[in-house]
Amino acid sequence: MFVVNLTQAQQEPAGDVKTVQETAKNYMKQGDYSNAVLVLNRALQSNADNLELQKDLTFAYYLNRDYVHALEVAQKFPDRQDADVQSFQLLGMVYKAIEEVKDCEKMYKAALKKFPNSGTLYSEYGEMKYTKKDYAEAIKIWEKGIESDPGYSGNYYNAAKHYYFTTDKVWGLIYGEIFVNLESYSKRTAEIKNVLLDGYKKLFSDVNLTKDQDTKNEFVKAYFDIIKSQSSFIGSNGVTPETLSAVRTKFILDWYAKNATRFPFRLFEYQQQLLKAGMFDAYNQWVFGTAANLPAYENWTKTHQEEYNKFDYFQHNRVFKLPAGQYYQSVK
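The structure corresponding to this sequence follows.
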């Protein structure tokens, strides 16, 4: 019965494309890429120019590691007037798989001319550069992605990791925390929480916090002018969720007394909002607790159940959005 219905669906004209796509996607979820390819190719016989079917077919070929056929379909995307960001994204994936670096870079440049505010394209273009060890160019691309599309999480993820492995002490923390608020419950979130905790350890590891830092950048200078006075909170206790909560509480209070008008910044506004609502300690436990000591964090949630539940409910029901125009980085 299923086979008969499927055949009938594929003989339908364009109207039943979504049904065919769903069938193919179910095959892909099951790892049956050959059947997904079969379904999509048959559908394309009567819908030859359907971009959505072609994109799905490219992806099915890609998952099946049939890069020759994937490229055969996807390399036509840039010439289409209706080509969207996902079309270029898929072609980029295929180019990366077959290591066609020159064609891939040419494609990304053309795609970004058509979609200059696509965080997705900046993120993946930067990743291509990074895999080729062109780190300086990669971070420039990710920074451009952050500036152009501040609501897309991928560029913050990549930039935070990049800065963590450099001498920089500020932007890895800033971008990492923005990332965990944009993408709060993924495997990458747990990874970046570790980066944040270690990043604060790096920040306070030297008595001279500003050593090797870009204090010509006015935002960075303002950050250090405040954070360096908070070192006493660390004291002999080290960097823990509790000491960081104390440091960051005082930081936000001082920032809003001195820099809020000069540097409006959504991340700090959010921290201030949590502080006023009595949820900032819980938030700091959420950011740093699992990375620092999971059993201790779990115990904290039990001994501060009301506080934890209040924050957890809020966290799951809020949308963290970043406005345009709050970009203060200056990449050399």
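The chain is about 70% helix and 0% strand.
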